[in-house]
Amino acid sequence: MKITKLLFLSLFAVLNTNAALSTNGTGFVTNFSSQVFYIGPGEILPPYANLSYVDLSGADLSGATLSNTWLSSANLTGANFTNATLSGIRSGRIIGIPAALPPDWQLLNGYLVGPTANLNDALLGGVDLSSADLTGVNIKNADLSGAILSNVNFSGATDMRADFSGADLYGANLDGAALEGAILDGVASGSITGTVAALPAGWLLTHGFLIGAGANLSGANLQGVDLSQANLTGVQSGGITGTPSDFPADWQLFNGYLIGPGADLSGADLSGADLTGLDLSNIILTDANLAGADVSGTWLDFQSKSELDLVAAYEAELATNYTLAEISDLRPGSSLIAVSNGTATIRFTIDVSTNLVDWTPATNTTSATLPADPEVQFFRFRM
């Protein structure tokens, strides 16, 4: 019966392309390609029916099947979707608010959001989707940057190559989710459940946390977490509790901050930190507090970063003592001597003159090696 109806519609489209729905929400509608569809409760629309830009205001689609239907820019004001099947539906820029939607479905930022929805290319940045049921969704190339995704059920989502930068995934269910190719910079997590099908290179899911380059681990409880294989470049931290069981080389935890090469320590309170001998190349120290921090022997790289704050703090500490220039001026002819491996090598040459104007070397260069264990020592010569 429904097949006969669809065959009839091709002729009806030519005769009446401006048909509208009746007051009870049923009737024929025409899309921009002059295809005609019957709208009514329990109707089964053909797969991939394109109802984009169609006026469905007041439509009764209760119990209808709209599998893989396109509803972009459709007017859904007052439309009734009670118990409708919306699997694979594509939307965006929806006009109006439906009167009713199936369980676990909602209209957010112009998109119909629910289990098995097709949200490829969706613009949902900064949107609150907390506790949404997104089982089996497709979100390839979607913008979810800064979105609140806490407690969202992503189980079975087979294509999550989306932009999650800065998103909050706390408590999300990622069982079977494929995140390979996803952008996770700045993503916050914790209490994540399930076993992921795939992750971007260099990322791991452990103890409920997504950990990788640029991850936001602020406030995380990392008690017993093995970070030895984690890529922590660009990681944001602060307020971390618990002690990880192991760290990558040159990394440590101080005052709730993960400190190591490439770390983002913007605004970090590192006052009094013992950073001796660490590799802190490519770190970000914008507005960090390094008062009293010991950075002796530390490898620092200030290129293209705001780590000049570190230099300012260190110079401020030196200002309370002698400056290098002042040390050089303590005695006439004073020189600074480099210390290597705990020893100072002093080299000098004795010159001779008969008129105190013309001088010639009386000996070859003479050297003496002296232990220099303290941080500062002064030497003098007596005759």
Give me the secondary-structure topology.
Blueprint: H1 2-15, E1 27-30, E2 36-39, E3 106-108, E4 111-113, E5 204-206, E6 209-211, E7 252-254, E8 257-259, E9 279-280, E10 299-300, H2 308-318, H3 324-328, E11 339-340, E12 343-348, E13 351-352, E14 360-361, E15 366-371
Parallel strand pairs: 9-10
Antiparallel strand pairs: 1-2, 3-4, 5-6, 7-8, 11-12, 12-15, 13-14
Shape: elongated
Q: What structural class do helix, strand and pairing data support?
A: mainly beta
Low-confidence stretches: 1-19, 302-308
Percent helix among the residues? Answer: under 10%
Strand content: 5-15%
- CATH topology of the domain at 1-118: the name is Pectate Lyase C-like
Largest sheet: 3 strands, antiparallel
Q: How big is the Rg?
A: 35 Å
**What is the mean pLDDT?**
85
Compute the separation of the termini in Å.
119 Å
Strand count: 15
Total number of helical segments? 3
What is the topology, as strand order, of the major beta sheet? Answer: 11-12-15
